Amino acid sequence: MTSIDLNSDLGEGFGPWPMGDDNAMLGIVTSANIACGFHAGDPAGILKVLKVAAERGVVVGAHVGYRDLVGFGRRNMDPSSEELVADTIYQIGAIKGLAKAAGTTVRYVKPHGALYNTIAYDARQAADVITGIKAVDPQLILMALAGAPIVEQARAAELTVVCEAFADRAYNADGSLVSRRLPGSVIHNPAEVAARMLRMVNEQSIVAIDGTVIPLEAQSICIHGDTATAVAIASTLRDTLAARGVTLKSFAHHG
């Protein structure tokens, strides 16, 4: 693999509460997952970050989540299919309108937090999100957890899927992410993160938290924008990959 996409979750501030350094991250990543207002983000802040992404040629995606501002979308929820399909459509519709006003286009959907982790393995909620995406725009690409059942489920439903790896998250031996409630779930050392991802790009594998080597094929690497060392991790990762001849570019066209 000679090229890889770097993505980050942006637009997650809410009114006067900032979250992460969106401007710095937009100088590093090639794709930006923009909050849609359900787990984070407010319209003025979302529009602002979309405008900067458009100026810098960063591809944008809809970061749809559960309607849970207080829990930042990280709490498990069990909406009905009727709700989840409509919630998915509603969030994509909102960001499509804001993106148009900002002079860019939404190219993909990356579910957020608990929704992302649930639909990776929960076929019913996955089907609802897939249905919602297809109802709005079947050309949208779905970004999903590498190796999870949703990848084949979405492809069977004729969506294009991009698989992603998490730069700063520890993995279990089965390829799932280590729960944030457990120690060691988030990796804060930029050099360690860069070494892990260089291995993933070159060897399509990663070392799980118990030391086992697991296969991991991904076309995109996620860097969380809300951790204290996020910008340092992102820039170290970008520089390390570039120094080893890996081209950094989005899986979709900016437009």
Topology summary:
Elements: E1 3-10, H1 22-25, E2 31-35, H2 43-56, E3 59-63, H3 81-102, E4 106-109, H4 113-121, H5 123-136, E5 141-145, H6 149-156, E6 161-166, H7 190-203, E7 205-207, E8 213-215, E9 220-223, H8 230-243, E10 247-248
Parallel strand pairs: 1-2, 1-9, 1-10, 2-3, 3-4, 4-5, 5-6, 6-9
Antiparallel strand pairs: 7-8
EC number: 3.5.2.9
Enzyme class: hydrolase
Catalytic activity: 5-oxo-L-proline + ATP + 2 H2O = L-glutamate + ADP + phosphate + H(+)
Explain this structure.
It comes from Pararhizobium capsulatum DSM 1112. Its EC number is 3.5.2.9. This is 5-oxoprolinase subunit A. With 255 residues, this protein is α/β, with parallel strands linked by helices. It has a single domain (3-248), classed as Alpha-Beta Barrel (TIM Barrel), CATH 3.20.20. The chain has helices spanning 22-25, 43-56, 81-102, 113-121, 123-136, 149-156, 190-203, 230-243, and strands at residues 3-10, 31-35, 59-63, 106-109, 141-145, 161-166, 205-207, 213-215, 220-223, 247-248. The strands form two sheets. A seven-stranded parallel beta barrel has the order 1-2-3-4-5-6-9, surrounded by six helices. Strands 7-8 form a two-stranded antiparallel ribbon. Strand 1, helix 1 and strand 2 form a beta-alpha-beta unit. Helix 4 (113-121) crosses helix 5 (123-136) and helix 7 crosses helix 8. It is globular, with a radius of gyration of 17 Å. The mean pLDDT is 95.
